Amino acid sequence: MKGVILAGGTGSRLLPLTTITNKHLLPVYDKPMIFYPIESLVRAGVTEIMVVTGGNHAGEFLRLLQSGKAFGCTSLQYAYQEQAGGIAEALGLAQEFIDRDKCVVVLADNILGESIKPYVDNFCRQDRGARILLKEVAKPEAYGVPIIENNRLIIIQEKPQFPRSPYAVIGLYMYDAEVWDIIRTLKPSGRGELEITDVNNAYIDRGLMEYDIISGWWGDAGESIESYREAFNYVAEHGANRLVQPV
């Protein structure tokens, strides 16, 4: 099992904080934001990781994270996304690194208040396919919303005006090697990007998508200034060393 952390994007929703840096290098209480997904993966037993980033500040990740040994990584590699082409395109840059292994993909601005190890273990027990994590939220229309019937995922609707479930698809995805074939078939969305929701729906169409519903705290620190503040305050209140319980 290998990990991919996607830390690209322009960070426009966090302006002016991101005028001179990548949003994933901003502090969330006493650590840079990028530290949290790395720690979550390592504590779940995923120690071979690739960070995919882009823009003018990509070199700062190497300077900050170095070899990854300080986090317990056995391997920490980097890939550069030349332009904003979507989450699925960014994931495609990790294909050579992942090869035929399974992978856990984390958006670097997602912070969880619980260990992801039980969910990674569930995925390890799957013979094939993919797995996503869902969280009940107050405003699901701001996210990808799953429609579930008889405990099976039917489709994920991206930011629907009238959501048909109270759940959001959070930014942590688990895929087998079939993901590379799926990415190659994708067409750009209306905003000119390869969408991760299209990847997930392709797995659903093939009957190969499973899910877990998390109960602990989850925050998207890069969604807005307000969500960034909420993540900062959560970590400050609960203590960084308690954010994810060690394995």
Sequence-ordered SSE layout with sheet pairings:
Blueprint: E1 2-6, E2 27-28, E3 31-32, H1 35-43, E4 48-54, H2 58-65, E5 75-81, H3 87-92, H4 95-98, E6 103-107, E7 110-112, H5 117-125, E8 130-136, E9 144-149, E10 152-158, E11 167-175, H6 178-185, H7 196-205, E12 209-213, E13 218-220, H8 225-238
Parallel strand pairs: 1-4, 1-6, 4-5, 8-12
Antiparallel strand pairs: 2-3, 6-11, 7-13, 8-11, 9-10
Strands, count? 13
What would you say the CATH architecture is?
A: Alpha-Beta Complex
Q: Work out the radius of gyration.
A: 17 Å
Give the biggest sheet. 7 strands, mixed
**CATH-defined topology:** Spore Coat Polysaccharide Biosynthesis Protein SpsA, Chain A
Amount of helix = 25-40%
Overall description:
Helix content is 28%, strand content 28%. It is of the alpha/beta class and 247 residues long. The protein has one domain: Spore Coat Polysaccharide Biosynthesis Protein SpsA, Chain A (Alpha-Beta Complex), CATH 3.90.550. It has a 7-stranded mixed sheet. The longest helix is centred in the last third of the chain and has 14 residues, at 225-238. Mean pLDDT is 92; it is low at 240-247.
Features:
single chain, 247 residues, alpha/beta, 7-stranded mixed sheet, 28% helix
Brief rundown of the structure:
By secondary structure, the protein is an alpha/beta fold.
